[in-house]
Amino acid sequence: MGRLGQKRPHHFRCGAVVLIAALIAAMPAAITRAQADGHARGDRPAPSIEIFSGVGFTQNSVFGYGGAVWAFGASVDARGPRVKALTGIGAYEYSGALPGVAGSAGFDGDVALAQLLGGYQWRRGEWTLKAYAGVGFETHDLSPGDPDNSVNGGEFGAVGQIELWRNLGDAGWLSLDASYADVFASYWTQLRLGRRMRGRVSAGLETGLSGNEEYDSARAGGFLRYNLGGTELTLSGGVSGDYLAEDFGGYAAFGLYRKF
After folding, report:
1. Which of 23, 75, 165, 218 could form a disulfide with 128 if both were Cys (CB 3.0 to 4.6 A apart)?
2. What is the domain range of residue 56?
3. Distance separating alpha carbons of residues 50 and 137, to the nearest angstrom
């Protein structure tokens, strides 16, 4: 996202929020239809598709995303090639300066992105590694226009991602996800250390970094994960902010994952 400065009252774009809500609502519906089709046929093949979606909030931004991974008909848990599609939309705000205007000015930004990636999954012992590369498009629309912000307009570029998982004993696990795009030099990382509790619940700690050529953000907190009939629901939260400007606040995120 663009540069974030002194916080201003929240007034994110209604259109972005509505689209995010529609995106998140559509994912469980697609899962339900796929399950119903499988039950009607009376077969339960090894899952070859992963679907994921979520929404995250900070003190000055909101972002929602959704996507899918296809294992070309093979099991998603097996070694082999993958294709991944991801889309997202959000809004943010920051304060800055405008030429000829005294004092600070407030800026609202809308962001949208889409990525199409090919990759491969390796499994060895307690380790699982997924590596992806492909192309992405990202666009930022600022209001009013900010001549000092280079993260503006739309660009295509290359994208690379890794997803690393390590089982720790019978109940623990460690995961690292990282992504980089040369579109606005955008990056995102997340490190989680979790433990499966009794029943369907997992819990743990998380931290991460994200940003682009105009903004750098850090976050740290915890998460709870609930497995509901094969669907994973994850709720996380903690503190976040621009670690260069020390503009800290809170964050909250909700994610949904399903393989079928």
Report:
1. 165
2. 14-259
3. 22
Residue 24, both tokens: 């998140």
Instruction: Confirm if 134 and 115 have CB atoms less than 8 A apart.
Output: yes
CA 175, CA 72: separation in Å to the nearest integer? 24
Please enumerate in sequence order all residues whose Cβ is within 8 A of that of 201, keeping only pairs 6 or more positions apart, or say none.
224, 225, 226, 227
Tally of CB atoms within 10 A around 69: 22
pLDDT of residue 95: 85
How many structural domains comprise the chain?
1
Amino acid occupying residue 256: L
CATH of the domain at 195: 2.40.160.40
d(CA 16, CA 230): 30
Q: Give kind and range of the element (H or E) at residue 233.
A: strand 231-242
Q: What is the pTM of this model?
A: 0.83
Length of the chain, please?
260
DSSP state of 70: E
Residue 137, domain member (yes or no)? yes
Nearest to 49 by CA among 57, 58, 37: 37
**Is residue 144 within 8 Å of 121, Cβ to Cβ?**
no
Sign of CA dihedral 171, 47, 74, 255: negative
* pLDDT tens digits, one per residue of 76-120: 999 999 999 999 999 999 888 777 666 778 899 999 999 999 999
Q: How far apart are the first and last CA of the chain?
A: 33
38 inside domain: yes
Q: Which among 43, 151, 132, 143 has a CA at the least distance from the CA of 93?
A: 143
